[in-house]
Specification:
alpha+beta; Adenine-n6-DNA-methyltransferase TaqI, Chain A, domain 2; four-stranded mixed beta sheet; 46% helix; 14% strand
């Protein structure tokens, strides 16, 4: 008898994958014939062992999925707050209409102005200002890392199209590439990586450590009073991404962001008081996302370690007959 959930995990083991690859055919599209699939040999532990092992693996996978879904929700909350405060100016509009800003305590609401003023670049909340990205941010800031020095390296494949976390880094001798520290945002500058959404927030280095990565990253760092995570949230904002994509130039298939064009994007800079409150809110979100990501990575490693042992039955989940008799 074969348990269906056990079969799902059995097909993920290297031993099974090796058998399937050996019997697969095709060049552009690789597949396996049903007649060949029937020849694959499997060694099955007792069904109660199958179910117990599969249940452990599924529990780990469910937990990993929940952590990732939680992170997606947390980031959506941070993005919504960014848009509400710095794009739609919801708290300012509410006060201008004599209303209390929604979801905000009186102390925080008091930090927002109750009117708009002309800035030369359009209406902006009173006391706030428009700045170009080049003025409000450091674009590719100077980071010191000697050539040949070993440091964490991030390639483009390790940066996701969604979520701020980096999937992994490797220690490598510094060659030629972008350099960054915790609090920097990595934005893919080349097609199609930019259009696909490859963007990350650096929060995995040790204190004072400098990392490096692909030459195809633009490194962004907000200047005060804007908090560091503002850079990541801005880089995920659709209007900014559209501007970045429009700034690209070069031959077909090798187009890249032009930093001078990117630097013309207009950023709203609030008062330091509002920026500080925003930082307090989104920093909690960023840290929780980082903690969840670390836990998901640890659970993934545990799942991958247990997978072949549980599937093969090498880990005994039930007492042996001798153990039962001894009792």
């Amino acid at each position: 008898m074969l348990d269906n959930t056990y079969l799902l995990y059995l097909l993920q083991t290297e031993e099974m994958l090796d058998q399937l690859r050996a019997r697969a055919t095709g060049t552009t599209v690789v597949g396996i014939k049903q007649s060949e699939l029937r020849k694959v040999r499997v060694s099955l532990p007792p069904v109660d062992q199958q179910k117990a092992g599969a249940r452990i693996l599924k529990t780990l996978d469910d937990r990993i999925t929940l952590l990732r879904e939680t992170n997606a929700t947390l980031e959506a909350i941070a993005q919504a707050l960014f848009k509400s405060w710095f794009v739609d100016f919801d708290p300012v509009r509410a006060k201008a209409q004599g209303r209390q800003p929604e979801g905000m305590d009186a102390t925080t609401a008091a930090l927002f102005p109750d009117s708009f003023e002309e800035s030369g670049l359009g209406l902006v909340p009173k006391g706030w200002s428009f700045h170009t990205l080049a003025d409000a941010y450091e674009i590719n800031p100077v980071r010191k890392l000697r050539k040949g020095e070993r440091a964490p390296y991030v390639d483009m494949a390790s940066v996701g199209t969604q979520g701020h976390t980096v999937h992994g880094s490797t220690d490598r001798e510094m060659g030629s590439g972008s350099k960054f520290v915790n609090g920097d945002t990595l934005l893919a500058r080349i097609t199609p990586c930019l259009e696909n959404g490859k963007t990350a927030f650096v929060d995995f280095l040790r204190a004072g450590q400098v990392g490096w990565g692909s030459t195809e990253f633009v490194v962004l760092r907000p200047k005060e009073p804007l908090p560091a995570y503002h850079g990541y949230l801005l880089s995920r904002h659709p209007a900014f991404r559209d501007h970045a994509i429009q700034s690209m130039s070069g031959t077909s298939g090798r187009q890249r962001i032009q930093n001078d064009v990117l630097g013309r994007y207009l950023v709203v800079v609030p008062t330091a008081e509002v920026a500080n409150v925003f930082a307090e809110l989104v920093d909690v979100v960023q840290q929780k996302i980082a903690a969840n990501h670390a836990q998901a990575q640890a659970l993934t490693q545990l799942r991958d370690t247990l997978l072949p042992r549980l599937i093969s039955g090498r880990i005994g989940l039930f007492p042996s007959a001798e153990s039962k008799e001894a009792k």
